[in-house]
Amino acid sequence: MEGIFAIWQRDLKKFFRDRARLFGSFTMPILFLLIFGGGLSGTMESMMTGNLGEGSENFNYVEFIFPGIVSMTLLMTAIFSAMSIIEDKNFGYMKEILVSPISRVSIAVGKMSGAATVSTIQGVILFLLIPFLGLSYSIVSLLLVIPFMFLLGAALSGVGLLFASMIKSTQGGFQLIVQILVMPMIFLSGALFPINNMPGWLNVIVKLNPVTYGVDVMKKIMIDVESLSSTVRETMGLNLTVFGRQVSVLEEILFILGFAILFVAIATVSFKHAHA
Description:
Blueprint: H1 2-17, H2 19-24, H3 27-51, H4 61-81, H5 83-90, H6 93-98, H7 104-126, H8 139-166, H9 173-187, H10 200-208, H11 210-222, H12 230-235, E1 241-242, E2 245-246, H13 249-274
Antiparallel strand pairs: 1-2
């Protein structure tokens, strides 16, 4: 536990000392919020009010995408936090950790915990935009979603840890893999638009994407889904189904928990082989 805490503490100190990283990570989520929220909100809300009947007047498109924007921030921060492993390898810090008595599992858990904490902090900072966007999430729902944000950040950081443990340069393969990986995970998650009418082959990728379940859970916790009509919920993809069966919040949380455990194990094995 001391080793895990030391690695976690170091990642947090690096985060708070790097102000450029702190503010720079908000650029893309805020741009997406402005572009999609400002550009499509009128169209989406008019479509709902005009075509989908009773209950659609309560639909707010910005309220719909905000949990997705927070999930996007968690994904990007968690994945990019794994880049510190490559930097640590280049500067020799990782060698010092690997020759210490700390187990490979503790190293992976420590890095994952640090990345999850950093991503959660950045996601919570986005909550400061809620009053300025005219949204009305309850304090209780925001408090309930924070522990889940940490779990989702941990699961997503495991993906970054796996690739970072195998790649030597931040200028080469890692950035390429991140660009190929991150953008599809965002657009195929339901963060910005409904995903319930995807082609069959693409729908398989959507259902395997952990961000899909993360976005769905965050929307169900933060948005008052029951105030929306069943037609609105179906049209906006708020009734996520797998094999024709609607999945519950508990099942989605268990899936993400299992995903996090799996990638901790895989990253640990990767550390052993890469630094044997």
